[in-house]
Amino acid sequence: MADNKITVAVIGASGYTGGEVIRLLLDHPGVELAFLSAERNAGVAVGAVHPWLRNHPAVAQLKFRPLDELEDVDIAFGCLPTGALPARLPIIAERAKRVLNLAGDFRLRDPQEIERHYPKTAQHPPLEDFAYFVPELSGGVPESRFINLPGCMAVATLYGLYPLFAENLAVDRVIVDAKTGSTGGGRGGSEPPAERSGNFRVHKLHGHRHTPEIHQALADFTGASMDLQFSTHSLDVPRGILVTGYARLRDGVRPLDVKRAYAKAYVNRPFVRVRPAPKAPQDFPMLKAVVGSNVAEVAISVRDGECVSVAALDNLIKGAAGQAIQTMNLISGFDEAAGLPRTAVSP
Ligand SMILES: NC(=O)c1ccc[n+]([C@@H]2O[C@H](COP(=O)([O-])OP(=O)(O)OC[C@H]3O[C@@H](n4cnc5c(N)ncnc54)[C@H](OP(=O)(O)O)[C@@H]3O)[C@@H](O)[C@H]2O)c1
User: Fold this and answer.
1) 152 among known catalytic residues
2) Whole-number pLDDT of residue 122
3) Is the pLDDT of residue 1 over 60?
4) Atom number, ligand 1, closest to the C-alpha of residue 316
5) Which domains does the chain have, with CATH numbers?
6) How far is the CA of 185 from the centre of ligand 1 (A)?
7) How far is residue 76 from each of residues 26, 48, 99, 107, 278, measured CA to CA in Å?
8) Which of 163, 209, 211, 269 has the greatest count of CB atoms below 10 A from its CB?
């Protein structure tokens, strides 16, 4: 530790989430960015790969390095594509005191679901269990050495649905419709920009890998199991996720009960904000209120026994890098909000 700062490595730092971890940590008061890895971009200057970072004075000194040069660090952020971490975990586990993994590799427990959705991971069982951690829902600070952060669309869905099931207000059939921006697919995304531009289309109507994650997490956090229809769509924006959930309330549940459940679930949580009494369209969660920030917005509308919930967040921040830094802050004894933006970048 230099100058009482913790040392941090970003593994897969030349990608979108890795770049966002760097951007947010450059001005974090308690962190030294000690090591940044890349594969094809090893040896290249950080400012050349992430031009949006090049004007920070510290960035002129930073280069991506191959993973086998990793030195001892306090925390490693895993920002590798799904399936790439397991084979590289031994070296990371040897050199990092704690690992915060943003990729999906070790989120699921059911071997069949792992085989189906993360086949490369299934060949490499983890060295130790990874704790699945959502700061606002897991309760307490995780003690595990290895922590897996949630998927971006999964966590937006969890924020939108959690209070309904924590308070047993809804019946167990839920429909969720998630819309996501193009950075959700990473820097290596295969869709040509000209085909995404001006379009709005289906991404996956059935079988998305975040479906078992939502089932598992909601069961862990609330004890509820449900019949979930989860579908995803591709938006023509670089960043942002907006998720709409449709649930039928149990007999006798009043709108006030639902409102209280949402207020209670996120009271004193700086990064999940419930929109009070939304009426006009702009009162509801929207991308322009969250993109650029570590905030997830949540709102509900209840009528005739139906609850429609809406949640929005920035997939690269509250859905990835910011969530991981919030977790780092909690496990390292920093202020939970250190280095994390609360306001959006707009218009
Ligand atoms: N994007 C999101 O919104 C989001 C949200 C939540 C979680 N996640 C998860 O976070 C992880 C990283 O996502 P991302 O969007 O940052 O991906 P990305 O933009 O594709 O970046 C991947 C990074 O890993 C390196 N890399 C590429 N292929 C590799 C390989 N075979 N072995 C080792 N390293 C390799 C790349 O290095 P080179 O540039 O040198 O090739 C790059 O640094 C993914 O697992 C993703 O599912 C993403």
Assistant:
1) yes
2) 86
3) no
4) 3
5) 6-129 (3.40.50.720), 153-314 (3.30.360.10)
6) 9
7) 15, 23, 5, 17, 40
8) 163
